[in-house]
Amino acid sequence: MWPSTLELQRLQPAHAHALQVLMLSLSRADRHARFGHALDDAALCAWVEALDWQTQRAWGLWAAPDVGLVAALHLFDMGQARSHELAVVVHPRLRRRGLARLLLQAALAQAPEVSRLWCAHAHPFIRAECAHHGWSLRHAGPQGGFEIGLRPDSTAQVPPLAGPVKCRV
After folding, report:
1. What is the pLDDT of residues 68-126, one digit of tens each?
2. pTM of the entire predicted model
3. C-beta separation of 10 from 56 below 8 A
4. Which long-range contacts (CB under 8 A, 24 or more apart) does 44-51 make?
């Protein structure tokens, strides 16, 4: 590990190629955890190309220009009031360094209307965030996945996060 500065940015359609590169770094097991099944490279690239950048919001952490996008978080509008699907991807070599937490902090600070999240799996990161913030986590029933109920006051206490972030990567 070495000290580094990562740049936090909202992801835009112009970042699609960088997102593809990050997604392609995922193992078969990681892809299964993210999507519920292991997408092959072509399907993964097609998924990125088909993203509706108007209805989803995404944030990314960028390393030096020669490294690129190292982590991304997406909030997909689920068509239900204040409910969004949460998806977080961190490059395999940079996990367990707090990058997902930084992205979640930024997303919730910039999307205060979100009161409920849905995710496909109750990953240990999700469980830890729920415990840390006092959010509820429950199995979503027949449709599968997990629902996270945010406390109304918990997102108001999340400080805004933007620009360079110093961390050890």
Report:
1. 899 999 888 777 767 778 888 888 888 888 888 888 888 888 877 777 777 777 678 87
2. 0.80
3. no
4. 44/20, 45/20, 47/23, 48/16, 48/19, 48/20, 48/23, 49/16, 51/16, 51/19
